[in-house]
Amino acid sequence: MCPLLPTLFLLSSLPVRQPSDLCLFSFFSFLFFLDRAVDQMRAEIGRMLKQEDGKTIQPVSFIVPRKNQDIFQADLYPPSPDIEPTMTSADWLAGKTLPLRRRAVKPGDVIVSSHNRRMTIDPAMTGGGGGGGTPPTGGAAAGGGGGADPKEVQRLQSEVESLKAQAAEADKLRRENENLRAKVQKLQSELAEASASSSSASGSSDPALSQKLSALEEELSNERARNAQQEGKLRDLESRFISAKKGENAAVERYKDLEVKYRELKSQMEQAQGTLYRAATLSGLDADMKHELNEMRDFFRDILQHSDEEGE
Question: Where is the composition biased (Gly residues) (predicted)?
């Protein structure tokens, strides 16, 4: 048993006090990085820091030879444990057991939280006044689309609200139309009964019965006209609703096309960033060329980081 085994040391301050420890010195003189710290665009599966001569620390990379390293190698990087918890504290206290949640480790993927987090800001801590401590709500938290145009999202939301209002108005007109039809049928039955009683008493003219019959006929005519007007309004509203629905579907399709184009552009920029990174590490290049390649790589990286921050 080595006495150094249960102890953690800094890599640059590892002591070798006994001759028996020399056989293990090569084992203690390096450390591996975490899996998330490797360069996935170079097919790097491990990175080690190695101590040489007790003074120098040299990085050592373990890279799998692949022909096309610009594309993410999914077989080398299996899904890792997610940063989101599998269970809440209440579930854990209740005795539940759920499998570990995992997620892909592809660079550039936006992590979308499945839990709604609430944040309250004390106005006194932010200087107070001016509404500066109000948490973002509404469309700012509903983006999640990684590069989606906020104006386009807001326009789609307003169209959806308009469609909901038109659908509610159409339902109201349908109910009114059904009530009018029931009332017309009732008036028709009353008119038929009055006509039958009038024909049975044709020998003696009754002014009151004739007046009631005329009133029923006039009311029936008015209800029919009102029913026809309501049906016309309902047909017009349904046609507008159908056209608006078609416009919404077309807008959704355009939105999906923009999302696909954004993902393709993002993938191409990631490939360009990886290519520039490898080009800057080639031997035989002068300092100016390496500096220029590094600047181009940083440019693409800043754009990708900015788009990820907007998506979150």
Answer: 126-148
Position 226 pLDDT exceeds 50: yes
The structure's pTM equals 0.29
Interaxial angle between packed helices 207-280 and 287-311, expressed in degrees from 0 to 180 and rounded to the nearest 10: 160
Nearest to 72 by CA among 47, 40, 103, 44: 40
How many CB atoms are closer than 10 A to CB 138? 8
Angle at Cα 262 formed by Cα 245 and Cα 74, nearest 5°?
120
The total of other beta-carbon atoms located within 10 Å of residue 284's CB is 5
Distance, CA of 287 to CA of 294 (rounded, Å): 10
Please state the rounded mean pLDDT for residues 35-48. 80
CB of 7 closer than 8 Å to CB of 24: no
Q: How many CB atoms lie within 10 A of CB 43?
A: 20
Q: How far apart are CA 24 and CA 16, in angstroms?
A: 9
Identify the CA nearest to 29 among candidates 53, 62, 1.
53
pLDDT score at 122: 59
Dist. CA 215–CA 209, nearest whole Å: 10
Q: For 154-174, give the secondary structure using H, E and C.
A: HHHHHHHHHHHHHHHHHHHHH
- 284-295 pLDDT, tens digit per residue, is 667 777 777 777
Q: What are residue 220's phi and psi, to 5 degrees?
A: -65, -40
